[in-house]
Amino acid sequence: MSDIDIARKTELRPVAEIAAELGLKPDHVETFGPYKAKVSLKALDKKGRDGHLILVSALTPTAAGEGKTTVTIGLAQGLAALGKKAAIALREPSLGPVMGMKGGATGGGYSQVLPMEEINLHFTGDLHAITSAHNLIAAVIDNTLHQRTLPIDPRRIVWPRVMDMNDRSLRHIIVGLGGPKSSFPREGSFDITAASEIMATLCLAESYADLKTRIGRIVVGYDYDKKPVTVQDLKIAGAVTALLKDALKPNLVQSMEHVPAFIHGGPFANIAQGTNSVLATKMALRYADYAVTEAGFGFDLGGEKFLDIKCRYAGLAPEALVLVSTARALKLHGGVSKSDLKKPDPYAVAKGLINLEKHIENAVKFGLKPVIAINRFANDTQEEIDAIKSCCVALHYDIIVTEAWAKGGKGAVELAEKVVRVIESGESRLRFLYDLEASVEKKIETIAKEIYGARSVVYSKEALSDLKQITKNGFDNLAVCMAKTQYSLSDDPKLLGRPENFDVEIREIIVNAGPGFLVPISGSIMRMPGLPREPAAEAIDIDDDGNISGLF
């Protein structure tokens, strides 16, 4: 059966019951129909000891993904099967990837969060609110130019427009055509909403006051003296925050086995830090003994950002790390073509293990000893699984085969048991990769060399100019959110395995003062993806009774 068919056979419980069992007060829960709810920020006023934080990350993925979300959900269900009080914290899907390459983003098989159709399609409207808030700023910028109320240099406006859909035709646009009544013509662009600075800012905010302060300091452009112009200068920080009043509240749903799931925020991992909101994570920790969350793409992207940015700013620290590996990804890194990944090849698996080894090394640099979870697919052979096991045993790392897709929580019980033991051992002691006080160049170099394995960092003339301006404007003490391809440890998606002797090329450096980080853009990374030749949207349909098909 397909994921959507499996999901429809699950009997959901009313979300009010899920909330009550979790310990949430009824007046803190705002239901959206029977199975979805918003949770008031006042729920965090609850006194008590927080639970244990578990981070799920992965090796360098294939284009199809490695089932990291499936393992995350399965692990939480496995903890519940052991009698533990567990909760999940995940990102919200973006319509762009849902309609584009990946399809649905709510797990798979018997480890899904539900109602999967609604979560994947609009959900509670958070991404639409973020889109509107972002574009309000864009509209006011152009109105400010038209009214000449601020000396903004139209050549140095850095605030794009956004939409929650992949549309390559909007990467570069001209606005303001039509004469004097239509304002000043200028070049512009669109990003996808998941890459919006508003998205990243919301995900790191911890209150309405914090959100408004962060939004106020967002840099939208520069004046004729190259001094930053902020949202506060536009006098609309309050209005933008007002549009996000409900979007800031975490969403509560459930897994197939009725484990509570806070799904909130959906930032891209290679641009906007790639983890769910701080508020959702803290609610999961406040109301459960074990909170399981994930970071986007591989550990080199989402994992590093989760630790160096989110944990640093929010005062979080995972007590266990799970690295998801698959035989097919290892075969890809071992030299097998994408079309042959379903064919058995234990030799290629063994060869591709150098990629997993590097991610293990990277995790150790943060003071974390990872548990390796093999997400088993139906066509994996025992010989391939044994090749992965032998490598991890040789490196003295624990490895567990999980069948969360096929068996739900039962298929992840062994993984859950191991994670509990790791937490009880107290082995993990988080340390950050760099100090915020270090220079921007040093922070970038540290990530590139230590995490990616780069030989050096090469800056374009534009990037060098950005560095000077960043230091001059006092933004050099911010964290770094490296934007690079997810398909390689390097900035070149064609370099698989564990690349050596490569340089990371930085084209430009963007200031995201709202969330509090700089975004060095490397390689050919784009902030507005395009649709593939055969978009996932072609398979999605709806019948006369309103039943959706083809959604992953």
Notable characteristics:
globular; 552 residues; 25 strands; alpha/beta; twelve-stranded mixed β-sheet; Rossmann fold; Formyltetrahydrofolate synthetase, domain 3; 19 helices; 3 domains
Structure report:
- Helix 6 runs antiparallel to helix 10 and helix 13 packs across helix 14.
- This protein is of the alpha/beta class and 552 residues long.
- The longest helix has 22 residues.
Q: Count of DSSP helices? A: 19
Shape descriptor reads globular
Low-confidence stretches: none
Whole-Å distance between the termini?
Answer: 11 Å
| Annotated CATH homologous superfamily of the largest domain | P-loop containing nucleotide triphosphate hydrolases
Tell me what the CATH architecture of the largest domain is: 3-Layer(aba) Sandwich
Rg calc: 23 Å
CATH topology of the largest domain: Rossmann fold
SS-based class: alpha/beta
Task: Describe the main β-sheet briefly.
Answer: 12 strands, mixed
> What amount of the residues lies in strands?
15-25%
Overall number of strands: 25
Overall domain count: 3
CATH class category label of the largest domain: Alpha Beta
Helix proportion range: 25-40%
